[in-house]
Amino acid sequence: MFRNVAPNKILEKSIQALAPTGGLMRRGIVTAANPIRAMVAIATEDGGHTIVELLSDWELKRGDIISWNNDYELGHETYHNQTRGTRSEVYVQNHGVSTADLPAQLLL
Question: Cα(59)–Cα(57) distance, rounded to whole angstroms?
C-alpha cells in the first residue's frame, strides 16, 4: 500500500469521468492509504473522501474504482472493487473528508 495523500491530476480527472450511478450506489477511486493501520481513502464524486478500515487482506491499489450500495452509512459494509472484480467487508470510518484532512483521518 501507499501513504501519499497529495492530489493527483490523473486521479482527479478519473473521478470527474465517473458516470453517475443513480440511486443509492456510490463510487470513488482509491487515492491514499495507511498500510500500518489498514486505512484507505476513496475520493468520491462529490469532491470529498470516504475513509474505510480494511478488515481483511483485501488488495487495493491507487486508482482502483470502488463502489458501495449504502450511500453515507458508517460501520460494517461490503465494498466492491470494480477494477479487480473483488469485494470485501470494510469498516466505514467517515465520509466527506477533505484532502487537507486526509493525514489526520488516515492516522499518518
Answer: 6
Q: Which residues, other chains included, contact 93 with Cβ-Cβ below 8 Å and sequence gap of 6+? A: 39, 51, 52, 53, 74, 105
Give SS3 for 61: coil
Phi, psi (5° rounding) for residue 96? 70, 25
Q: How many CB atoms lie within 10 A of CB 21?
A: 12
> Reduced to 3 states, what is the DSSP secondary structure of residue 88?
strand
The reported pTM is 0.82
Q: Round to whole Å and give the CA distance between 93 and 39.
A: 9
Q: Give whole-number Cα distances, 74 to 31, 34, 56, in Å.
A: 19, 19, 18
Per-residue model confidence as pLDDT tens digits over 7-41: 555 555 565 555 555 556 889 999 999 999 999 99
- The radius of gyration computed from the CA coordinates of the chain, to the nearest angstrom, equals 12
